[in-house]
Design brief:
single chain, 405 residues, alpha+beta, Aminopeptidase, Alpha-Beta Plaits, 2 domains, 4-stranded antiparallel beta sheet, 25% strand, globular, binds zinc ion
């Protein structure tokens, strides 16, 4: 079996179904395409002989391939949605034999990927690469993972490779707040540990992510006509200003890097009577994350004392956790991943991700879920591309993990 062609075949089938998530719909999944894609996966899982196949009321697809030998129970998770960055939802992939230089993605629309602006292309000279037609993302994030998981299952079944229990989950709406992994029913997805395949270039490994929370402030002031405002009016916007000014201006996304945490005031809505504020808290260190929450509560108390006539409420929401809170590199989920890479001669490129994955959410829910590479570059961009050799290596990692479990 030619694994590369096989992977490409799967990828093109999934890429043909537009499945952008849409922020703010209030329903999961947020788009019809994710239902359609999920149904296709259910059909394919059924044809492969998996059991307990389910597409639940949130469009979450789960299934189990029962083991043929004793082993750790493994889970694989990918997301159904592609990101909406104001590009076309329709993806028209093309495979280009890359011989160096600029890549004309779309002659008609004059969309060219410049080799000077994208030095990452150079490493793939002489290789086949999948690109979009420049009017959309490619959606290797995360359909490369979907192709990888489905191809791996088919290879295992058809080649009768021995394996332990393999759980799969395809979850919607990752790109708009890890919504699918939050509602994934853990009675239907019960591995000892799991993996997402949602990172970029060859060799990438992520087991450290932020601890993440959202904070919602509601401020109600006192309105008054200017003629009677003296000692009476309380301006909620200025109360918000006082609150914001208590937070260190150097601990913000634009002033931090690597493993620094931050506060991010990222939404405000106000009028003369009320002001709503939203803030994100991010920190790799769990203790620091908790300290940031405590500081926030104290800041609110301080502003309450300053403005006794204002009504101020604050609500905290934990969104996801650092995967490393619940596992060290010596533990099986992470150790086996490095073992798989090393067995395949792939150099590991570990980095702490200033964000979260479905795995950060699953880890917070008790299933340690590190993340490895799809092989692609430039997620969330019209210049997203997927070199086939790296794509195949990503599949080899999946097969090796199943073997090592
Ligand atoms: Zn992704």
């Amino acid at each position: 079996m030619n694994y590369q062609d096989f992977l490409v075949e799967h990828f093109l089938r999934y890429a043909a179904i537009a499945s952008q998530s849409i922020a703010g719909t209030g329903v999961i999944p947020s788009s019809e395409g994710q239902w359609t894609l999920g149904r296709l996966l259910c059909d394919e899982l059924k044809a492969l002989g998996l059991i307990n196949i389910d597409q639940d009321e949130h469009g979450v697809v789960t299934a189990l391939l029962p083991g043929t030998r004793p082993a750790a129970k493994l889970g694989f998770c990918s997301h159904l949605d592609t990101v909406n960055v104001s590009l076309s939802p329709e993806v028209k992939p093309q495979i280009i034999d890359y011989q160096g230089g600029d890549v004309v993605l779309n002659a008609k629309e004059h969309i060219v990927m410049s080799a000077a602006e994208h030095p990452e292309l150079k490493a793939y000279q002489g290789q086949k690469i999948i690109f979009s037609d420049g009017t959309s993302v490619l959606g290797a994030d995360n359909k490369a993972a979907m192709a990888n998981i489905m191809a791996a299952l088919q290879i295992i079944v058809e080649e009768q490779r021995p394996h332990g229990d393999l759980y799969v989950a395809f979850v919607p709406d990752e790109e708009i707040g890890l919504c699918g992994s939050k509602v994934l029913d853990l009675n239907k997805f019960k591995p000892d540990y799991a993996y997402t395949i949602d990172s970029c270039a060859l060799g990438e490994v992520v087991y450290e992510t932020f601890n993440a929370g959202s904070v919602y402030f509601e401020i109600e002031g006192v309105t008054a006509h200017p003629m009677s405002a003296k000692d009476n009016l309380v301006n909620p916007i200025l109360v918000a200003h006082d609150l914001i000014s208590l937070f260190d201006r150097l601990q913000t996304p634009e002033h931090t890097a690597e493993k620094d945490g931050y506060w991010w005031f990222n939404a405000v809505k106000a009028d003369a009577l009320t002001c709503s504020l939203t803030m994100h808290i991010r920190d790799f260190d769990k203790a620091n994350y908790l300290k940031r929450k405590e500081f926030t509560q104290q800041a609110v108390e301080q502003v309450k004392r300053l403005h006794p006539k204002a009504k101020i409420t604050v609500r905290f929401e934990d969104v996801y956790e650092n995967i490393a809170n619940n596992a060290s590199p010596a533990d099986a989920p992470i150790a086996k991943l490095y073992q798989a890479l090393s067995a395949l001669g792939i150099e590991a490129r570990t980095y702490a991700m200033r964000g979260g994955t479905d795995g950060s959410c699953l880890s917070a829910r008790g299933i340690v879920t590190p993340n490895y590479f799809t092989g692609a570059h430039n997620f969330h961009s019209r210049f997203e591309f997927l070199p086939l050799e790296s794509f195949e290596k990503s599949l080899q990692v999946t097969l090796k993990l199943i073997e090592l479990a």
